[in-house]
Structure formats: C-alpha cells, structure tokens
Amino acid sequence: MKQIIQSFKTGETILEEIPVPQVKRGCLLIQTTRSLVSLGTERMLVEFGKSNYLQKAKQQPDKVKQVLDKMKTDGLLPTVHSVFNKLEEPIPLGYCNVGKVIAVGEGVSGYEVGDRVVSNGPHAEYVCVPKNLVAHIPDNVSDEEAAFTVVGSIGLQGIRLLNPTLGETVVVIGLGLIGLLTAQLLKANGCRVIGSDLDDEKLALAEKWGIIPFNSSKGDVVKFVEEQTGGVGADGVIITASAQTNAIISQAARMSRKRGKIVLVGVVGLNISRAEFYEKELTFQVSCSYGPGRYDENYEQKGIDYPLPYVRWTEQRNFDAVLFALSSGMLQVKEMITEIVPLTEYNRIYGSIGSHKSIASILKYDEKELKEPIHTIELVSNNFKGSKGVIGIIGAGNFTKMTLLPALKNSGAHLKYIASQGGLSSTLLAKKYGFVRSTTDYKEILEDDEVDLVLITTRHNQHAEMVIESLNAGKNVFVEKPLALNEKELERIIEAYRESGKTLTVGFNRRFSPHIEKIKSIVGNAQMNVVATMNAGFIPSNVWVHDMKIGGGRIIGEACHYIDLISYLTGSRVKAVCMNAMGANPEENTDNASILLKMENGSTGVINYFSNGSKAYSKERVEVFSQERTLIMDNFRKTEAFGVKGFKKMKTTMDKGHKNQFRRLIKAVQEGCDALIPFDSIINTTKASFAAIESLKENRWVEVK
Questions:
Q1: 153-286 and 509-703 in the same fold
Q2: N or C: which terminus of the chain carries fewer CB neighbours within 10 A?
Q3: Residues 301-310: pLDDT tens digits?
Q4: With the C-alpha atoms ordered 164, 165, 166, 168, is the resulting torsion angle positive or negative?
Q5: What global pTM score does this model have?
C-alpha cells in the first residue's frame, strides 16, 4: 500500500510503498477512500523538515539542551549518531481519514466489515486505528464531508472549554480550516460570532454563514469588537490562527470583556502581558486536540472509555457530535473544498504547501474492488538458500533502529526480514540496511526455512510468546531483555527451549563490553564485592514500561542487565535477593531501588537503580572490590584500576558491548557454536529479577531456586 510521510532530515514529502498493517486487538482495519489535508498543521511539519540544522535547533531549544547533556555523559560520536538517527525518523502525515472497515479486531463491538467510518488515521491506503478513535458516518453524509470530522472536533473541543451560552459574542481569530468550522459550530450553539482574518475570500465565505467578518489587515480588530459589543468586549475569544507573533494573544486580551475567556486552539506566540490579563481577570486555556482521552494510552490504545455521566464529551463523542452537525445541516463544508486530488498526485498539494491558498484539500483513493491486503513486500531480490546466519527481526522500534542494526553492520549476518506492526518503520529500516523483505506478519518469518535466527525487540509483554513460537518453529532466538515477565511465562520458555535443540540468547550486552571483559580478566573468579549504579533517568508514570503487564516495570525490564553483569563478573549464580525502594510504601513498578545480591560463591552485589538523579551525571557506573584491588568503570567510556599491577586506565568511545555481542552471536549461529550466555545463567538472572519484586512486597530476603 501507499502512505505519505515527511522526512525531518531532508524536508522531502514522500509517497512510500509499505506493507498493509495487521488488524490488532481493540482496533479496526480500514481501507481509505478519502483523507483531508490539514494545511496548517501539515505545513508546519513540512516547513520544519525543510529548514536547515541551525534553524531546527533554534526551534527546539529544549532538544538542544538534551543533546548537550548527552554529549557530556556519552561523548561526541555516540551523541552525533543518535541525533542523526533521530532526524531520519519519518513522520506519517495526516489525521483526518475516511474509509470502509475491512477487518474487526478482537474485543471490538459495534462495527462490521463494510461500515463507513471516520478516524484519525494518516494519509495511507489502509489504516489500523483503535476503536475509540473511530466513529460511524451517517448515511446522508458523503465521504468528502465526513473527512472534516476530526479537524472539526479540534474546534469543537475549544468551544467546549470556552463553554459559551446562548447570545454571547465570541471572536474567532483565524478563519482557516479549523477557524471556519469553529465559527459555524459557535453559530449553531446560538452565539454571535465575529471572524477575524487577513483573507477576503475566507471572510466572504464566513459572512455567507452569518458570521460577522473583519479583515484585521485593514483596521483595528480590537476597536471593531468594541463597536460590535457596545464597548463591553467579547465574552469569549477562540484563537485558531497559526503565527509566531505575540500580537494575537495581546489582541485577544484587549478585545475581551472583564472576566472574559480566551481559548487557544492554534499556535501563536505566548509572551503574555500580565497587565492585560490582570486588569480584566481573564481566563486563558490551551485546548488539547480532539478532547478528553487525547494522549491517554488507556483510552486511545487500550480502548478503556470514560464513563459518560462523568466525561460527557470524549474524543470519540466529539467525532459523533461533528458528524451529527454535518448530517443535520448545521455544519456546511462543501464550499470549503478547494480541490480533490488523487493520492498519486499528492505533490500538487505538498509541493507548494507553504504558499497554498486552499482552505481544504482532499486526497482521493482508489476504490477498486478490494483484493487480499499484502502484508509483506519485497525490496530486493536475494536467495540465501544454504546460507547460515539468515536473520529475521521482529520489531522496528528505537532499540532496533538506534542500537541493533548499527551493531549488526559487518557482523556477517544475512538480512532477510524485518517486521513492524504498522509497516512503515520496518520498510524504511529495510531500505536503509538492505533487508530483502519488510512485513507486518511476523509469522511469515517463522515459516521461512531460510531463516535460522530470529531477533525479537518488541514490547516486553510480547517477548515470551514470540520466543516460544520461534523455538517451536526451529529457530535460534535472540530476544532483547527481559526474557519473561513472570514465572509462568518463564516455565513455558524453559519447556520450549529443552524441546527445540536451538540456542536462546538474551540481550545482556554489558558483559560483552571491552571494559567489563578487561575487569573480568583482572579479577578472575576470586570472591568480590560489586557495586553497580544506574542513573536511569526519569520516565513518566504513564509510559508503558511502568505497566507491570506490558513492560514489567524497570527493575524486571532493565535492572536485570546488572544482575547478569554481576553474575558474569563473579562467575557465580545469584543465591538470594533483597530489594529496598524509596518511599514509605513503594509500588512494585518502582524505579528507585537498591538490590542486594548474595552469590553462590560468597561474592556480593549491590545494584543501585535510581531515576531521580541528574542527567548530567554518568548513566552507568560499576565498582569492583577484590583482593586489595579496586576497579571502577564509568559509563563504558573509562575504566580505572587501583592496586593492579601493569594496568592503570583504559579509555574508549562509549562501548556497551552491542557490536561484540552480535558479531559473536552471528558467528555462533553460522558455525554451530554454543550459546553466548549459558541458559542456566539466563534463567537464574530472570528468576532473580522476579525475586527482587517479591522481596519488596514481602520485606525479606528471597532465595532464588
């Protein structure tokens, strides 16, 4: 299928060929018939992409600070690589989609194949959209009209925040696409509406719908509003304009009555004059897109709706309200349609989007009779028959892009498949690194006899099942940590592993770092005390890694790195674990904790995993004390020794062992060697991470059996 994307690095707008996504649980798979180009939002993305690096930096000062902080801790080269990889990330354009349902995901009710629906899907021939971001289209509303639903809900949410009553005067500043829709909805709400813009054509259209027009380039809009309101001022102002100037927010304040309300829907400068707001006791609020539920993963991705009596208007219910307004004739949009352009001619819109005078441009999609969706595309022709080290990667997220694929370079691996849920990320990575195929159906990888190594880099809750499936399919397996999220999953993996006769490797890369290997070569198997500190950094509580069912929490999900590392350095299995965490009543998904390890050979380990430290401080530090010797590793860049004859210090660029790990992994698969990490060590590490959580819950030492 085809999808429009925007390159942040080059500014190029591209119509990319990618595989059709699979329908997911809680989602609908939709074949697109129309999509609306939001010229304001999409123009900003395109223009940002076309700007040079200096201009990009000026527009994102917060990102510049993050880069400088990373440079201090990680070094220049890793930071540069990270920044350029980030710039290469494409942005799918579009969020106003109309189409027909072709598949209904598990757990979705109220929709059937063939239903006409709107969604916030992008400009793509097929989209997979969670059920709470989809709404039915009334029969008397055309596809072109329905394409305005999502963008209309943006204006509607601004109105709901303003909460105007019958007869109030409301000014809409900016009569672009959202502004014209907002003004009409205000009229339908019984308001007297003044529309301000610089474009006479848009003003004339607004006047046709009963909106009082004013061209702000030809006079003082503040005085005009005062005249229209008998000197009282506007009851409310909704800003839908897009401009960097601070003048608009000042105008909104000056035209408002005392204790009036201002709602920002667009993007303007926000250098607010305290005096202008203070003297009138003005209320100012920024509207968040389509309404309640936006950016709430429980609502959007998991399909958990808010109870209607308590949250009357959600994203989806706002969609329904706009569709009702279209169906009843309260909202007129046909005259706003400037052009309808075939998807393949998208550059007619995007090629001149910066100077485009269109109000609404609509993309039209091929509506030929549906064929079976293609979930795998071939990018290059290659036959790996008889070869070893043929890989298929399941997962094309940040770890795969930023770490795995760069590390696989020059490893000798044969790159056949890369899979992602949506198909876009896997296709772009496949093109960059020379994979034969991009797919949204990972089971195709398991069914391919040429593939002898599967690499799994998905979200943590998918690891166990995919490991089991891959082992059962007769594949060697690499899985990024953690191996499993609970004992039940782990037992099933153990059973599948024993029956498979294949190797299983977990991404405990730290033990393969030259710094750790150097320390190990010095301390040998002597008893030792190891202190490992991870300055993990803050991650908001609503991010999936904290969800015990999806991410397993950061202790199981990431601190396991250091359990494995200490096992490697000490040459011993973990015997018992005790975990203490910050706070009077710490939860099991805590990310501020100290973990004590008793090793079978008498060594001890301490893991300090903290998220409340400064980002300017090194992220990782390991200290080893043994036989009157001390070795300190700082952030995989520097190792110092004290009391060690013949060795004082080593420095490298940051090297966490990924390249060495994958080079050895591919060699092991190709030559039929043993697994990189003994299976019993992997199991011991995983059980120790579970024991840490159990220890926290029960406030005691927990033996690892």
A1: no
A2: C
A3: 999 999 999 9
A4: negative
A5: 0.89
